[in-house]
Amino acid sequence: MKQEIDATAELEHKNIVKYHEFKEEANLTTKKGEAKRVAYIVQELVEGGELFDYIIDDGAFSEPIVKHFAKQLLQGLLHIYTRGFSHRDLKPENLLLDSDYNIKIVDFGFACKLDARDGSGFSHSVVGTPGYMAPEVLAKRPY
User: Fold this and answer.
1) Pick the catalytic residue: 6, 57, 89, 100?
2) Is the distance from CB of 96 to CB of 51 less than 8 angstroms?
3) For position 143, what pLDDT does the model report?
4) Which of 62, 74, 99, 121 is the one with CA 20 to 30 A from 140?
């Protein structure tokens, strides 16, 4: 969770979810009255659900709808890229829609700096969701 918060701290864009609060260690009292240690993130409310659900329920989108979503997705990705990050788990489940059907990119848990940890500019970690991974990631080649 900390990595996700650190990655998004520098990202302020209308197509990227906003995080309001983060606690690594907090106390929660269960319904049974027991104390439990938890971590949490408070993010902006995004009421429309996942883009994935719309794809499953409605099938292929019309061209105007695809253009609407693609433009917003690309604008959000450009912002992420120009701030020096890679998302690394982009998929319809990580694209939420607000009440006006605007894209909000979420889940930066696998995000990393573009310059990579070793300074080479290439990432080597095999992270993400296998069905959505690029061939070079699956082949364990630098990307």
Assistant:
1) 89
2) yes
3) 76
4) 74
**Cα–Cα distance, 87 to 70 (Å, whole number):** 16
Is-catalytic flag, 100?
A: no
Q: Can you give the pTM of this predicted structure? A: 0.81
* 74, 14 Cβ separation under 8 angstroms: no
The span from the CA of 54 to the CA of 59, in Å, is 7
* Residue ranges in the chain assigned as alpha helix (H): 2-8, 51-58, 63-82, 135-138
Q: Which long-range contacts (CB under 8 A, 24 or more apart) does 130-139 make?
A: 131/91, 132/89, 132/90, 132/91
9-49 pLDDT, tens digit per residue, is 889 999 999 988 888 899 999 999 999 999 898 999 999 99
Highest CATH level, class, for 2-136: mainly alpha
| Per-residue burial over 45-69, b = 16 or more CB atoms within 10 Å of its CB, e = otherwise | ebebebbeebeeeeeeeeeeeeeeb
Question: What is the spatial distance between Cα 131 and Cα 40, in angstroms, rounded to a whole number?
Answer: 28
Under 8 Å CB-to-CB from 4, ≥6 apart: which residues? 41, 107, 108, 109, 111
Do 90 and 52 contact (CB within 8 A), yes or no? no
